[in-house]
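Sequence in, structure out. Go.
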Amino acid sequence: MIRLWRRDAVEGGAQMLSSAELAARARRLELKARRLVDGRALGAYDSVFRGHGIEFSEVRAYQSGDPFSSIDWKVTARMGKPYVKRFVEERELTVLLVVDLSSSTDFGTRQRLKRELAFEVAGVLALAAARNNDRVGLLLFTDKVERFVPPLRGRGRVLCLLYDLLRFRPEGKGTDLPQALDAANRYLKVRSLIFVISDFQGTGPPRALRAASGRHDVVAIEIHDPAEFELPRSGLIEVEDPETGAREIADLADGVTRRRLRGLAEAEHERTVRAIRGAGIDRVELRTDQPYAAELAAFFGARARARRR
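Output:
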């Protein structure tokens, strides 16, 4: 997909910042995320994402109406009267934030860069997970896995992860999502909740998505800028693909050219949507020119309703 603008200064991205400046920026991001989570703007995270199984809770005396299949026969024989095993839904989750740092995310024409929005969303999800006492980790990728931070618990974990996001300077420019998902499958030893935050350019073979969704609960969070589809009437302009460096001259005053470029962008987007849906993965689409809390809340609400069916 062709890109028309790039800004080199990302929130804590390519700039050389001091540790104090990075810490301050991470703290501001955390406070913004905290306001959204505290205000319940995102809905009830804990009622939407739960553990993936059941765990033993206790043995108690049999009561009328208890299923016979729940009787613990060993304890019953030892105590001389029937006892049952009680199980509860597993609450503990392992959450992994898989964040795209490829060059195409260093793009934005409205309120923020796509990468800045990705950082904010990652912060909100990390804080929601920490509030729920879930383990949360981070995997950063471009055309390779750039960094992996193992999932751990603790509210201080959120600030550490945001600091990692802001200070990290990726080596790669392209996108290799299949490699990132393969790495996540290797690193995660238990079924986990994976949020993939990306513009999903260069999504790769759908089988990588299917393989990940077969082992984990995967949620795709697509981030776009409106200028990727609605090109301005700006006359002759040199356009560049930020991931490959390929350039060409385009006349954006020409309607045929604008329609051609828009058609290419929409076709790529449609292929991505089909690949995600075909893999059975939940999908949320966010834009750099719109508030994201309402979109996330709507997704959480729809997922909560689906769980209750």
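Check: Residues 1-14 have pLDDT under 50 and may be disordered. The two ends are 39 Å apart (CA to CA).
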